[in-house]
Amino acid sequence: MSKTPVWKSIALSLTSEIAEGRYSTGDRLPTEAQLSAKHGVNRHTVRRALSELAEQGLVHARRGAGVFVAAHPTDYPIGKRVRYHKSISANGKMPGKKILTLTTRAADASEAEALQLEPGDPVHVYDGLSLADGQPIGLFQSVFPADRLPDILEALTETQSVTKALQRCGIADYTRISTRLTARAATVTQALHLRLPEGAPVLFSVGVNADPNGVPVEFGRTVFAGERVTLTLNED
Amino acid sequence: MSKTPVWKSIALSLTSEIAEGRYSTGDRLPTEAQLSAKHGVNRHTVRRALSELAEQGLVHARRGAGVFVAAHPTDYPIGKRVRYHKSISANGKMPGKKILTLTTRAADASEAEALQLEPGDPVHVYDGLSLADGQPIGLFQSVFPADRLPDILEALTETQSVTKALQRCGIADYTRISTRLTARAATVTQALHLRLPEGAPVLFSVGVNADPNGVPVEFGRTVFAGERVTLTLNED
DNA sequence: AGTCATTTGTTCGTATGTATG
DNA sequence: TCATACATACGAACAAATGAC
Questions:
Q1: Whether B60 contacts A118, CB under 8 Å
Q2: Footprint of strand D on the protein (CB under 7 A)
Q3: How are beta strands A75-79 and B230-234 bridged, if at all?
Q4: pTM of the predicted model as reported, rounded to 2 decimal places
Q5: pLDDT digits (tens, 9 = 90+) for B24-79
Q6: Which among A69, A103, A124 is the end of a domain?
């Protein structure tokens, strides 16, 4: 029943070994032959795994010399037990939303991967602005799979709420299956929308929501005005 | 002579055919078998070429169907370097930590409230730096109730790990009961420690950890270098 | 310098699994 | 149902770069 390819599990294994400091930057990994023997697989299978790490920039191979650790993954799980869904609240309230654009177009690579679609598949896109007390606090973009949610744009127009629009499209409940957060400097466009000086610190959030069956229904990216927003992660 | 690998020349050939409109977006390329025959090479060699195009986002393979020319790479609206590796790594432990100071003092108002103490109660304080690849990625301060954890400083000195130090003090397990996140501009001191330019965007995190009974055991504040860190929130 | 074992890179061959239409 | 087409995996051989002797 192990649906995952062998090369993928080897890649994951190596990734965590690097992340945990088993190998540090500049270190040479075991040779392909050694890794093959260790995992009991063909050398090609190990090469496939190493190729994956190289693509992610974690390792770098030098012919005749070996494979070396180039960097450590800079992705930090901040809590295994953090129940995040229905928990992200910007100072408790996000009263107002303003629709900027509603469009339908082809999914790019990152959107397709997040929503488990093929690149080029149609997606509905909701660009908007979150307001509190008349002030903009967040600039967001929600991407929905068009074939799974054909009527989402209409529902969004009426409700202006992602949750309610999803409900109207038959998604009674949904769960956040992944979220990534980082701090950045506001671009010109973002600063303009959020009424911030260019380069002001913003909180950049990328997340995927899925229905109870685990099927992704929304891929969202939000830029919060750092000065005006504190994200709170709650239990249950 | 052409020291360039065969697969590379095939990849270039296919790239120009796509660029010249020989195949347009959505079209299906010839099958791997057909391409193998056409170029007089093994199927693996063609696959290596197609893998290159797929990595560049020019084509996309669908098992059982064929290889299709991907939609034109629509520019990422917000950020380009978002990484989506499904990290199932259970422990989010940081590779390196450096102790800056270990002190004992009286709790201020916010610390007392977070730890459910009275202001002025003694607390042990651990100031440190998180490192990855020798680069500082986070500047943190952990505050512990001194009466509940009298020997925590000693344990921290030896283990350099909050988790292990708490274990040594009898806290086998603990849970994050609250986390708040916001984006800020780095202060002079923070910039110095994190080796960032002053004013660079940083991710400011405040959290409380509690033992299984809900008794707070740690109040932590961390400033992450926004450029170098992405926080990942995982569901179980 | 040059030789030589080591190590990665490329290419072929073969077989089987799995999703598509 | 079933042929097609991509995905995974094993095995073999040689080329090319490296580094140590």
A1: yes
A2: A 5-8, 40-45, 48, 62-65; B 3, 29, 31-33, 44, 47, 50, 61-67
A3: parallel
A4: 0.69
A5: 777 888 989 899 988 989 999 999 999 988 877 778 888 888 888 865 433 322 22
A6: A69
